[in-house]
Design goal:
about 30% helix; five-stranded mixed beta barrel; Rossmann fold; about 500 residues; Arc Repressor Mutant, subunit A; 3 domains; globular; alpha/beta; OB fold (Dihydrolipoamide Acetyltransferase, E2P)
Amino acid sequence: MTDQRETVRSNAKYLRQVRPIDPEEICEYVEGTPHPAVVRQILREEALDLELIERADGTFVPVPDDPVPPLSRPLDRLPRHYEDRLEDLLAERYGPNWHEGASGDLLRSVIRRFKANYLHGEGVEYDDDVASGYAIYHLPGYYAAIQYALSDLAERGLLGRTLRVLDVGAGVGGPALGLCDLLPEDALLEYHAVEPSAAADVLETLLEETDRNVHTTVHRTTAEAFDPAAADAPDSFDLVLVCNVLSELDDPEAVLRSSLEYVADDGALVALAPADRETSIGLRRLERAVETDPDVTVYAPAVRLWPGATPSDRGWSFDARPDLAVPTFQRHLERAGGDDEDHRPGEFVNVDVQFSYSILRRDGVQRVDFDLDPADWARMADMDRHVPNRINVVAAKFSRNLSAEDDDGTGHGGGRESGRANPLFKVTDGSESVDHYVVVTSVTELNRPLLEADYGEVCSFEQALALWNDDEEAYNLVVDEETIVDRIG
């Protein structure tokens, strides 16, 4: 069998430069003339080393050199085949009417309990029931969030079509499925998940729905105990994911630092967290802690526009994207609980896509990297010197419109004009020690680019009015008819 494997490999190495590799052709050159299915299996097992992808017609070709493209449009739903597979799993565990009767009551109780624990900062123990409830409630949002975050890298050609990925604390698989679906069909993915809990059973089941060129391994161990050498895994990865897990760890900084050690020299680590205040601020705090390592650079969405400066404000920042369609499993569980006297409408539906994220690299590359002249632009660290004057500032838009709802939880009400809330955005230049917000009191063609800019995009503000807001203990940069805004990110 070893000789057969080496012969198949040799033929594949030669033919990959000439034409598509056909197992039916190669078997003629292998001692014993094995069945083409045997050759095909060997090629699948060697695909990672040979950097080959299997096409729908059964032939194998080299992975293209082109980078992975970013999302071309907003996501609208969790794909149906993942919905169906999760419902099949729930039916296998709890019966065909899993959402009704005692099993439905159990799952609703589990979801209520881990939501309450999370709200109060308490840990969650993952057994089969908790893993099922977690998948029902969180799978869609996490599936979408990771794709938006990874598009930050894809937009700049920093995701290759050949990817080795480590997913630390992979959970039930939302980020894993999102990653797989972001990649084009001609990409080759070697995916390693680290997940010690019962969530790994759900993860493995859902990974069965991924593409033929996704090669997966689930390591049922903790992040702290994971050893690539002992686990027959690479010692470095193009992409390391640490998604929605840091807030649940006893020592998240230690895990984040150890995870960074697995990042290849030209790779990236993507940390994801829910958008709520404490978890989001906690992620930003960890980001700032690990960037003290001279080999670690904050790539995005936070910026470091001034050399040697790092922010020390509270750091609450999150992105928000369009809601997804309600998946069938959430709809079933929600409807079946309608007669429960404790039921609150919509409590088992979770399709909003709001998340905090941090992308860290080890090669010094930043999404935005240019020099600012302090003679032309004000630093936020020096804002107290500029109140109440008009100034020029360069900053990243670090939120969506925070005045869209009165109860957005930001702790900053903004201003109001003619009974309507003025557009309000958190901004950062990476030097601030207190929060800075832009308040748009008059929308003009000259400042409209701010409204059109994406989350994390850098803009220049000319003739913005700097004010101190005593009520919120924050600086306001007032954008009005005298202010010019340009998108320069």
